[in-house]
Amino acid sequence: MSPLFTASGVKKSYGGLTVLRGVDLHVEPGEILGLVGANGAGKSTFVDIITGITPANEGEILLGGTRLAGSPSQRAKLGLARTFQHPQLAFEMSLRENIAVGRSTGLLSNWTRTVTAAGQGLLGGCRVNVPAIEKIASELGLKNIDRLAQKVSFGELRLVEVARALMQSPRLLVLDEPFSGVGDSGTSGIIFAIKRVRDSGCAVLLIDHNIDLLVDTVDRMALLSQGRITVEGSVAECMGNAEFRSTYIGVG
Ligand SMILES: Nc1ncnc2c1ncn2[C@@H]1O[C@H](COP(=O)(O)OP(=O)(O)OP(=O)(O)O)[C@@H](O)[C@H]1O
C-alpha cells in the first residue's frame, strides 16, 4: 500500500536557529501516527510546513501522491485538515458557527483569517443547521453549541477546533496537542472521532505529550529529535527503544 502522506527531507531554520534538519515521515491510509518530541523539538513547525503556514527551506511533501503546495486553503481542498496548539476560533461567534466554517472554508491559518473566513463563509451561505454539525458535536461530547465561543472553557474550544477539522472530512487529519486542557469525556470523544477517521481509510497525524493516551490510540509512533525522526515503529517497538524512552519519557 502506498503512503497517503509522505514528507521527505524537510528542513527548516528560523534565522540562525535550525529546527528541522531533514524530516522523513509517512502515514499510511487507515493509520494513526503519533508524533512525539521534547518541547521545542519542532513538531508544530513541521505541522505548519505541512499545512502551508510557514515555508520549508527544503523538502517535499506529498498527499495522495500530489505535491502539497500553495496556501492553507488550497491544501485544505486537497484533503488536509488541522487543529492548532492554541485554538484559532472566532470568539464572537457561536460554537456552531465556528464548526460550520470548517465545511465552507477549510483549513485556516490564524485567528484573523478565521474571523474573516467565518464571515465570508456565513455570508456566502455556509449552512449552520446541517445534521453533520450536530453529529460531530455530539460525538465529541460538545453540548449547547449555540453558546458564544467567548463563553466556553478552553477544553471546549479545543473540541470545537477538532469538530471544525472533522467537518472537512479530511484525507489527512493533523491534530496538534488536541488533548491538552480537555477533560475525560472530551478526550474519549476525540479518540472515538480519530479512530472513526482512521477506520474510514483516512490518515491521522497526532501530536501530543500525553504518552499514555498516545499508546492507547495510535498505530505507530515517531520521535522527532535533533531535527530528524530518530525512532519510528510500532508502539511496542518505540516503548522498548532506549533512545525513545530516554528522550521522550525521561527514563532509559
Ligand atoms: N516563527 C518562529 N520564529 C523563530 N523561532 C521559532 C518560530 N516558531 C518556532 N520557533 C522556534 O523553533 C523551535 C521549535 O518550535 P516548535 O513550536 O515547532 O516546537 P514543538 O516541538 O512544537 O514544541 P512544543 O512541544 O513546546 O509545542 C523552538 O525553539 C521555537 O522557539
Question: Could you name the key traits of this structure?
Answer:
10 strands, single chain, 10 helices, alpha/beta, binds adenosine-5'-triphosphate
Would you write up a description of this structure?
With 252 residues, this protein is of the alpha/beta class. It contains 10 helices and 10 strands. It has helices at residues 43-50, 72-77, 95-105, 111-123, 131-140, 154-166, 184-199, 211-217, 235-239, 242-249; strands at residues 5-14, 17-27, 31-36, 58-63, 66-67, 80-82, 172-176, 203-207, 220-225, 228-233. A 6-stranded mixed beta sheet has the order 6-7-8-3-9-10, with helices on both faces. α3 (95-105) packs across α4 (111-123), α5 crosses α6 (154-166) and α6 (154-166) runs parallel beside α7 (184-199). It starts with a strand and ends with a helix. It binds adenosine-5'-triphosphate. The site of adenosine-5'-triphosphate (ATP) has 12 residues, from β2 and α1. One of its GO terms (molecular function) is ATP binding. It holds the Pfam family ABC_tran. This is ATP-binding cassette domain-containing protein.
